[in-house]
Amino acid sequence: MEHQRKFRRIVTKAESAFSRGNFHSAVIWAQIAAQFAWERHPGFYCDLTLESLLMEIAKKMGDRSATSPPASQILPFEKSGNKFHILHVISGCTEFGGHTLVVAAWIKNTLDTAVHSIVATAQKEPMPVALTSLASASGGSCQQLAKFSPNLLDRSLLLRHFRNWADLIVIHVNPSDALPILAFGVEGGPPVVLFNHADDVFWLGASIADVVLDLHPAGQSQTLKRRGVKTSKILPIPLNNPPRAFSYDVAREKLGIKPGTTVLLTVGREPKYLPVAGHDFLGTVFKIMRKHSNLVLLAVGPKNQGRWAKASAMSGGRIIPLGRIDWSNLHSFYASADIFLDSFPVGSGTSYLEAAARAIPSIGLQFKDAPTLTEGPDEVAFGNLNEYPSTVEEYTGLLEQMIADPFLFREKAIRFKELVTAHHFPPGWNHYLDDVISQLPSRHATRLPKILNNCIEPVNNLIADWDAKVLNQETVQQTYATIMFYAPELQKAEMLQEQTASFVTEFLKTKNIHEFGSFLYYFKEGLLA
After folding, report:
1. Of 438, 473, 496, the domain-final residue
2. Same domain flag for 218 and 332
3. 144, 12: one domain
4. For residues 173 and 196, what is the distance between their CA atoms, to the nearest angstrom?
5. 10 Å Cβ neighbour count for 354?
6. Which residue, 181, 178, 217, 167, is CA-closest to 196?
């Protein structure tokens, strides 16, 4: 694959910087390589060269405490009492996002038994108050390392110091975030578990995970076979009961929905709906809506632009792209829905579970060629009960039945709610967590992964094709692609001269980026630090 060749070129940059003793530059290049592999699937899910390089830096970077603020002055963690202390490590979080919801639910579900603290490796803007207040309520604290040093090695050592507070460290970071390896790439301290929220893509961190927490069996199989990780445990996505919302009738009135209207609801990030391999969510639903004048589609996530704006206009405004909406404001939309449509080709596992937890009849499309992209069919709570047809024709037929009489599917929806409650809410979810904790080692150990299968499979090419659509879709403003390189332009990366003050200016002149966004973090605070 062409992606592999380009990935190796970036890795070579990291190795060159390391050989010169420029560890900070090596880390930057390692993160660029991982980011590229995350966004341009290279055909494998873990790289021994990158893991080994970062582990070596973790061991060699030494004590930089003379140039770093003492950890005790930055993060006043005081370990006291008999409760279990959990340190959550995130790259960053927003009001709208799965990481925020997972950490918040984890804290709520264990408030009686655990103290939780949160450290963000890269975020500068304030963390959501809803999340920080939960950590405080548990007796813990929150901190953002980027506020204290632009240097990634300094941040890593600060993070390493904080492990002394914890009984367990949970990694929730972005796939390209190297700081956890730098911080925990040495022996000792409490066990480290990696919450695998990105089981369909390349990520860093296999070498420091005492246990990988997989969300479902397909992800677990990939962890063991394609990442070379020795130990994996299933831990479903934690959920919390939503706040008391409007009734069905009041919610529909509030949203201006006319009587007799059947409301279809979908919730997911816009890139998840980009068509690939004949799986076209918007095109499929649009054809169905042309047959039924009483249908309205509320789409939370996609913006009213590009294909979505065109579909909205052609449907007479019955397809309504709403853009991103904070979770706290989503409850009226769920309350008004008659049928929930999971996104495809890439599923929205948390949104689907949120709908099922409210007993909303739901349907998705199974992507048999890439099972990790569609989480629903592999959901541990449902077994074989899922409404996930494997072809567009079957999906269309089943959705037509649900539209004709959604009440016929209410009984199964109620059963789904019971199953979701049993596996994703306390006390059921807590039993999964207790099982994980009971089998953790007493002391953290590092281990380079043993890659068992690095051959390119058809699914890898399919995922790479979808990645390319995401990166090249000009109408998508918020995508998985925070590096935003066009693949053909990557050869020009040699112009990224290390440690030059003019880097950002020259880089912007190339116009090789769709959206600068969080990628600025890697360069402005990395290469220019």
Report:
1. 438
2. no
3. no
4. 9
5. 24
6. 217
User: Which of 99, 114, 96, 113 shows the shortest CA–CA distance to 323?
Assistant: 96
18 and 101 both lie in a single domain: no
Kindly state whether residues 12 and 94 are assigned to the same domain.
no
- Backbone phi, psi, residue 381, to 5°: -75, -25
- Between CA 274 and CA 279 the distance in angstroms is 8
| Cis before 236? omega within 30 | no
Q: Are residues 293 and 400 in the same domain?
A: yes
pLDDT along the chain (529 residues), means of 10: 81 93 90 86 89 95 55 58 92 78 93 95 89 93 89 92 93 95 96 93 94 90 88 92 79 91 93 84 94 95 92 94 85 93 88 90 81 65 70 92 86 89 94 96 92 53 48 35 30 33 36 37 36
Query: Sign of torsion, CA 305 311 313 318?
Result: negative
Helix (H) or strand (E) holding 156: helix 152-162
Phi, psi of 299 (to 5 degrees): -115, 105
Cβ burial of 398 (10 Å; 0-12, 13-18, 19+) is: middle
Residues 187 and 212 in one domain: yes
Q: Is residue 470 part of a domain?
A: yes
The CATH number of residue 384's host domain is 3.40.50.2000
At residue 27, the pLDDT reads 92
Cα–Cα distance measured from residue 383 to residue 415, given in angstroms and rounded to the nearest whole number:
12
- Please tell me the pTM assigned to this model: 0.81
C-alpha 52/C-alpha 285 separation (Å) is 47
Q: Nearest to residue 157, comparing CAs of 79, 73, 89, 68?
A: 68
Q: Domain span at residue 95?
A: 71-240+430-438
Residue 171's nearest CA partner among 162, 465, 479 is 162
295 closest CA partner among 203, 379, 220, 399: 399
188-to-161, 184, 192, 421, 441 alpha-carbon distances in Å? 12, 8, 10, 37, 11
Burial 152-166 (b: 16+ CB within 10 A, else e): bbbbbbbbbbbbebb
Helix, strand, or coil (residue 43): coil
d(CA 211, CA 229): 8
With respect to residue 443, please indicate whether it lies within any of the assigned structural domains: no
Residues 285 and 392 in one domain: yes
| Residue 414, in any domain of the structure | yes
Q: What is the per-residue pLDDT for 271? A: 84
Residues 450 and 358 sit within 8 Å (Cβ to Cβ) = no
Q: What is the pLDDT of residue 64?
A: 53
pLDDT of residue 96: 66
Q: What is the pLDDT of residue 523?
A: 40
Q: Locate tokens 């996104």: which residue? A: 343
